[in-house]
Design brief:
This protein is an alpha+beta fold. The chain has six helices and 15 strands. The chain starts with a helix and ends with a strand.
Amino acid sequence: MTSLRNSVLAILLALGSFALAGVAMAQGSPAAPAAAEYRLGSGDVLRINVYQNPDLTLETRVTEAGIISFPLLGNVRVGGLTVTAAEKLIADGLRNGNFVKQPQVTLVVMQIRGNQVSVLGQVNRPGRYPLEVADMRLTDVLAMAGGTSQVGADIVVVTGVREGRPVRLEVDLPALFAPEGGDRNVVLLNGDTVWVARQPTVYIYGEVQRPGPMRIERDMTVMQALATGGGLTQRGTQKGIRVHRKTPEGKVQVIEPALDDRVRDGDVVFVRESLF
């Protein structure tokens, strides 16, 4: 059941942008703005063509200073410009320098290296991913990383810098797809890090059908945890249930829980054998 849940979540993440837009349209809300054009950054590999001027064809990499060296023009600062703006800048330079009368410049980004985010933790394909447009959102990047793994937590942490200050945001993934959840789908910026922690775990042993560790679902109770473990064996008794829980000071306390009490991360649930 957990595997099915995570598969559905991965599919939702891959379709996140479209689903959120559909909700907004269905509710009569204005559609989200169109994706902004990608801005060139240092390390990007560009291929530049000038129509009917093959000698001006160039494949180059943007330097750390945001500069490329273009024939006839010398150093041209393209870092931070959109593709359209960079094409216009080069065309204007060729025209104003009387090198080409009516230059038609085409610029293609062959490799994106300038704007990237890191996706780490419990995702299917952790790594660094390019921000291909200026308003790529959390669900877009998670989809590129293959979605969260089976043991990935529902809460995702995004860290980065906004207006010169470090920020840390916690995003509840299931809430993104609830009504009015689109505002939580944060826009990612260059240098951001997305961290998916391991989902909290409870450990069950003793007289249960399937002892061992298991994922804690939201608001899971002792009874639900036992049911996930297949229930008690014929020799098990509800009267013999104990929870071993570590305190903030690192000590372990033994609790006799009610079946509707919630379990916590790291809890060890022990089911005793009936004496009769």
